[in-house]
Specification:
The complex is a heterodimer of chains A (95) and B (350). With 95 residues, chain A is an alpha+beta fold. Chain A contains three helices and five strands. Chain A has a single domain (10-86), classed as Outer Surface Protein A, domain 3. In chain A, 41% of the residues lie in helices and 23% in strands. A three-stranded antiparallel β-sheet of chain A has the order 2-3-4. In chain A, strand 2 and strand 3 (22-26) form a beta hairpin. The radius of gyration of chain A is 13 Å and the shape is globular. In chain B, helix 2 packs parallel to helix 3 (82-91). The longest helix of chain B has 22 residues, at 328-349. In chain B, 42% of the residues are buried. At the A-B interface, strand 2, strand 3 and strand 4 of A face helix 1 of B.
């Protein structure tokens, strides 16, 4: 389980742009491309604002009108996927 | 198709539909230290964009959603503030591609590029021997410098693509150019298209290779799967390109054009913002380019090679002053591809 007190740090090498509600991320070599859905895109954007995962959970609850338990599960899953793709890392402190 | 290709296609589709310039080329300078016989560029007596003007364009492109910025010239290393521009663009989060002749690349600039991490550096390699390469560039010693630059960049783990325009004066050593590029650790790419010069002169086109040249020198070299696999599927707009939709170009003087090869001035960023120029609903050229369908290109649409043709609107315009006309180099390449496919079919049925 991912600790909610951690902070998400985006991969500084990645190139990303938001088109409509989707965020597209291309690695620096231009070889791997990732598309983030609306919720993942929201997390990605908040990650740039130095928010802890628990703060992001609160934001997600408000934005998508879901309960905290569901938000936590969804975020853990999405953060896990983003870590696997190496487009983010986790930090103990704001960056 | 793997997921990366699918997503890339999805991004491009989105950009096309909304006319977001997915990729833009900034021509940083018209100055060049070489004088290549096939060059189509013409320099003008106008002030080139300043560093501040270029960073302003980069800001605008980033805001519009541009992912890839290519730098071209002239020769980009003639620009004294090149490193500052690349550093700024890196901070704005672009994939960067440099087009250069390589002759001004030093160990220091190679180290700098290693830090900036461009997606690739594309270097013109016009021969496998000094006599051939220098004969085309018009500058003795340029071959040696270009080869040294490729080595320097490859040593720094930078992805180098060598680009060779095949013409009468180098086609006979095309296989050796390919071998040299690979030996240096680069990735060779060849093209046969030679455009008329932007001032209307057709002199560069005198260098175009003939059908016999192709049969003599290219059959074994270019007959690879990647070339043959580029047969179009049945998408309805396969004959129209990305120029003016998800591809843009900005000249050293600030003129916004639909493509590097299509020098129609849509507006100048010194007079209007890039956004205003790019999204001007009354611009007749943009309307034409964005509205064109394959079936509007009557001559091309009736052609039996349309499914294997990489038609270039820029060539068509420069050759015929008509965006809907066929482009001779694309016709020749399509004819060649058709021939190769017939050879391949014959080989397979044998």
């Amino acid at each position: 389980m991912i600790s909610l007190e951690k902070y998400i740090v985006r991969d500084s090498e990645a190139v990303w742009r938001k088109l409509d509600d989707e965020v597209f991320i291309i690695d620096q070599a231009g070889e791997k491309v990732f598309a983030l859905n609306k919720t993942a895109a929201f997390i990605w954007e908040l990650a740039g604002d130095n928010m802890s995962i628990s703060e992001i959970v609160k934001q997600i609850c408000t934005r998508f009108e879901i309960d905290e338990a569901t938000a936590r599960t969804d975020i853990s899953e999405l953060v896990g996927e983003m870590l696997e793709k190496r487009i983010i890392s986790l930090n103990d402190r704001p960056h | 198709m793997d997921s990366t290709q699918t997503i890339f296609k999805h991004i491009e589709e989105k950009c096309r539909k909304k006319n977001i310039p997915f990729a833009a080329v900034l021509e940083l300078t018209a100055h060049c230290n070489l004088s290549c016989s096939h060059c189509f560029k013409v320099s003008e007596n106008r002030p080139e964009l300043t560093y501040d003007e270029i960073t302003d364009v980069l800001d605008q492109l980033a805001a519009l959603g541009t992912f890839v910025v290519g730098y071209s010239g002239g020769e980009v290393f003639c620009r004294p503030d090149l490193f500052d521009i690349l550093t700024y663009a890196r901070q704005k989060g672009f994939l960067q591609v440099l087009l250069t002749n390589g002759t001004l690349i030093t160990p220091e600039s190679a180290s700098f590029l290693q830090k900036i991490k461009p997606r690739d550096v594309e270097i013109s390699l016009l021969g496998a021997r000094p006599e051939t390469h220098d004969g085309i560039t018009g500058v003795r010693g340029s071959f040696e410098k270009t080869v040294a630059a490729i080595k320097l960049l490859v040593e720094k783990n930078i992805y180098v693509i060598t680009k060779t325009v095949l013409m009468k004066s180098n086609v006979y050593e095309c296989d050796r150019i390919k071998a040299l590029s690979r030996k240096l650790g680069a990735h060779p790419r060849f093209g046969t298209g030679i455009l008329p010069r932007f001032d209307g002169s057709t002199q560069p086109q005198e260098q175009k290779i003939t059908w016999e040249d192709r049969k003599h020198f290219l059959e074994d070299v270019v007959l690879d799967k990647s070339f043959l696999m580029r047969v179009k599927d049945d998408e309805k707009d396969f004959l129209v390109c990305k120029a003016g939709k998800c591809f843009a170009c900005i000249s050293p003087y600030g003129d916004v054009c639909p493509c590097v090869l299509l020098p129609i001035k849509l507006g100048n960023i010194r007079e209007k913002s890039f956004r205003k120029i790019w999204y001007d609903p009354d611009n007749a050229v943009l309307k034409e380019l964005r509205g064109l369908k394959s079936s509007d290109l009557e001559q091309c649409f009736a052609c039996d090679m349309k499914n294997i043709c990489d038609r270039c609107a820029g060539s068509a315009y420069l050759e015929h002053n008509n965006l809907r006309a066929p482009a001779s180099s694309a016709c020749e390449d399509a004819r060649w591809k058709k021939y190769l496919l017939q050879v391949k079919d014959a080989q397979e049925s044998y």
